[in-house]
Specification:
Number of domains: 1
Distance between the termini: 134 Å
Number of strands: 2
Oligomer: single chain
Radius of gyration: 44 Å
Structural class: mainly alpha
Length: 107
């Protein structure tokens, strides 16, 4: 298999090994380009998947932070009520002490 090239009226015959080398190189380049394109497509899909996962986690964190905020509010309300209850209990204890002192004075 010889390839002919015409240059300024001259015919140049190329050897078979040269043609095979050129074709093989071309096939290798196309194979490399396809490999790189497929890798980029896979990476692109992975990036999209990671973006969806990150968005999902972000939404979950937002929901959890809202729940934590509600829990903190509930705890503040409970503490306030507990402080009020503690104050009432102290007043009751003072009144009980006064009553017990009067009863013991009467005996």
């Amino acid at each position: 298999m010889n390839a002919e090239k015409i240059k300024d009226g001259e015919v140049v015959k190329l050897p078979k090994w040269f043609c095979i080398t050129i074709i093989t190189g071309g096939v290798s380049m196309v194979s490399f380009a396809l490999t790189m394109m497929s890798r980029e497509a896979v990476e692109s899909e992975e990036l999209k998947r990671h973006d969806r996962v990150i968005t999902s986690h972000s939404e979950t964190l937002t929901r959890h932070s809202e729940a934590i905020g509600a829990i903190k509010t509930d705890l503040a309300v409970i503490r306030t009520r507990q402080e009020g209850t503690d104050g009432v209990l102290e007043r009751i204890e003072v009144q009980q002490t006064k009553i017990l002192d009067k009863l013991s004075d009467n005996d």
